[in-house]
Amino acid sequence: MGQLQGKVALITGSGRGQGLAAAKRFAAEGAKIVINDLDEQSINSAVTVVRADGGEAVGAAGDVSKAADVQRVLAVAKEKLGGIDILYNNAGIGYSANKRFGVAMTDILHCSEDDWKRILDINIGGVFLFCKYGIPMLIERGGGVIINTASIAALRGAADAHAYTATKGAIVALTRAIAVTYGSKGIRANTICPGVIDTEMIHDTLIAAEGIRSVLVKGTPLNRIGTAEDIADVALFLASDASRFITGEALAVDGGLIQRVGIG
């Protein structure tokens, strides 16, 4: 029997990248998956992949920054799978934001007010909305697990992407508060803080740039760049009973990148 047998996991931003890797991993461990993303094409592709591996999945399109969309996604989970046991707030925008969303990742002096608001609406607003409307559903089922995606940017300073960094720090703080407030309801909440992870989202905008990969590898004590599967395995640990006495934590998954003096 799998570690998540009989559980329902809603994973935002799971049409690709880290979210899709987690969906596949969770499904392999027996969970039923709600695939959420912005576009139907990505969702349908992800659902097909999970089902092809023998898993069970349904799709629910929606913008995490819009309350009506969030409520609709949660309604799909309720109507089709009976509710949720695991809420994985994975969706967010980072260094590929200019390409996908038309917002710039820059320092505070060069960040427009519109970009600031858009980044906050998606990155921290999405976590707020899914927790606001999702926590009652977890309580209905006797408790559950919340996993929020932040970044090592939440744990160290960086020279740019100030709006992004602010949202990731806020996610860590909010997750701790949720853990304290709802622990008595049987809810555990933890944050994953990925380092540089080689996914479609940042490959073309960062990792593929000339000379960047070698610099990142050299700066990482484990001597490689992370993969979506590295994050998925940590998410599985946090979603499962193996982490049953862990809550309110922010776990860096970065190959030791932030441990080096001068990094970040």
Percentage of residues in helical conformation: 40-55%
CATH class term: Alpha Beta
Give average pLDDT, whole number. Answer: 92
* Count of the separate structural domains: 1
Rg result: 17 Å
Number of helices: 9
Helix/strand class? alpha/beta
Shape: globular
Oligomer: single chain
**Name of the CATH superfamily:** NAD(P)-binding Rossmann-like Domain
- Low-pLDDT runs: none
CATH topology: the name is: Rossmann fold
Largest sheet entry: 7 strands, parallel
Helix and strand sequence: EHEHEHEHHEHEHHHE
By CATH, the architecture is named 3-Layer(aba) Sandwich
Compute the number of strand runs.
7
Strand content: 5-15%
Record the strand order, biggest sheet: 3-2-1-4-5-6-7
How far apart, in Å, are the first and last alpha carbons? 41 Å
Draw up the topology in text.
Blueprint: E1 8-11, H1 17-28, E2 32-37, H2 40-52, E3 56-61, H3 67-81, E4 86-89, H4 97-100, H5 113-140, E5 144-149, H6 162-182, E6 187-194, H7 200-207, H8 212-219, H9 228-239, E7 250-253
What does this protein look like?
There is one protein chain. By secondary structure, the protein is of the alpha/beta class. The chain has one domain: 3-Layer(aba) Sandwich (Rossmann fold). It contains nine helices and seven strands. It has a seven-stranded parallel beta sheet, with helices on both faces. Strand 2, helix 2 and strand 3 form a beta-alpha-beta unit. Helix 3 runs parallel beside helix 5. The termini are far apart. The model has no long low-confidence stretch (mean pLDDT 92).
